[in-house]
Amino acid sequence: MLAAVLGALATLFTIRGIRLSARVSLVLELVSVSIITLLLVFTLVHLGANAFDADQFDLSGAKPSGIAVGMVLAILGFVGFSSADALAREAKDPYRAVPRAIMWSAAGVGVLYVFAAYTQVAALGPALGDSAQPLNDLATLVGMPGWFNPILDFGIAASFFAVVVAPMNVIGRILYVMGKEGVVPSAIGRTHPTHLTPHRALISVGPLVIAVPVVLYLVGVDAMDVVTWVDTYGTYGYMVAYAAAAIAAVVFLRSIKVRVRMVWPAAALAIGSMAYVFYANVYPVPAYPLNVIPWLFLATVAAALAWYWILSRRSPEVIAKIGTSDMETLEGIG
């Protein structure tokens, strides 16, 4: 029920406009981060001298393969930091605002991520692995009053809402451009007559965002497993996108004959890291159903490549047009 409500609201806000959806997401995320940060600080105060957990700084016994497996969900924690780039056409000063948004988002999320992970491990120890609601467990450990848990749950739900809105804004605009270029039906490449947002693309994505978790939950899959499975599958997509963006950066800079010293090392590191993380999640073969998810993702990639091949045969002019759209604003009302 919550997934359906959040998905429907996310679709509504993204159709209403990027300014509204961004402001709502920002307010909700600030509320969520404030609540969670407050709980984490109280937890460290409660631990007292035990707040310093030396074991977390000891990497003996840590294996690269084990770290790589955990990196899938760790990458998920950063997903969304790059969403600002898809909104550049709608920003007032994109060449200044977008780089700042990306860099500060990554830095801020990184600090919060490390702080939250450290505090939960220090407080819950091995029990963290068996906890379905670690933040609620922290609240119980600290002795927070009963009215705090509903507020905490609201903060978590608000964070989920913001996490849904950011990718939907990006996906909607990607589909919109694909519609303009003929990769998908041209009807998707239209904007709302009043809000000037890619409403058809967003309406196409919204039901899928809602349906996947709802169907899994209805067939009896545990809620935490739903989150893990869906997030793992989605993170693979982001990993491929990040690696592709790294390659594109190198190719683009070469095409315009601009040299940036750190691009090559950064691209090589990004591509190598993403490739290794994916490999470590395939071999050694993990337990079911995590062993199936990488292959489901590869099947999706294969389907996309097959569609590309079909287009190249049937409509080579569409292939030639891909990536040529250079619109300062979203256009094509209808």
UniProtKB/TrEMBL annotation:
<dbReference type="GO" id="GO:0022857">
    <property type="term" value="F:transmembrane transporter activity"/>
</dbReference>
<dbReference type="InterPro" id="IPR050367">
    <property type="entry name" value="APC_superfamily"/>
</dbReference>
<feature type="transmembrane region" description="Helical">
    <location>
        <begin position="67"/>
        <end position="89"/>
    </location>
</feature>
<feature type="transmembrane region" description="Helical">
    <location>
        <begin position="147"/>
        <end position="171"/>
    </location>
</feature>
<keyword id="KW-1003">Cell membrane</keyword>
<keyword id="KW-0812">Transmembrane</keyword>
<protein>
    <submittedName>
        <fullName>Amino acid permease</fullName>
    </submittedName>
</protein>
<feature type="transmembrane region" description="Helical">
    <location>
        <begin position="233"/>
        <end position="253"/>
    </location>
</feature>
<feature type="transmembrane region" description="Helical">
    <location>
        <begin position="26"/>
        <end position="47"/>
    </location>
</feature>
<feature type="transmembrane region" description="Helical">
    <location>
        <begin position="201"/>
        <end position="221"/>
    </location>
</feature>
<feature type="transmembrane region" description="Helical">
    <location>
        <begin position="292"/>
        <end position="311"/>
    </location>
</feature>
<feature type="transmembrane region" description="Helical">
    <location>
        <begin position="101"/>
        <end position="127"/>
    </location>
</feature>
<feature type="transmembrane region" description="Helical">
    <location>
        <begin position="262"/>
        <end position="280"/>
    </location>
</feature>
<comment type="function">
    <text>Probable amino-acid or metabolite transport protein.</text>
</comment>
<dbReference type="InterPro" id="IPR002293">
    <property type="entry name" value="AA/rel_permease1"/>
</dbReference>
<keyword id="KW-0472">Membrane</keyword>
<dbReference type="GO" id="GO:0005886">
    <property type="term" value="C:plasma membrane"/>
</dbReference>
<dbReference type="Pfam" id="PF13520">
    <property type="entry name" value="AA_permease_2"/>
</dbReference>
<keyword id="KW-1133">Transmembrane helix</keyword>
<comment type="similarity">
    <text>Belongs to the amino acid-polyamine-organocation (APC) superfamily.</text>
</comment>
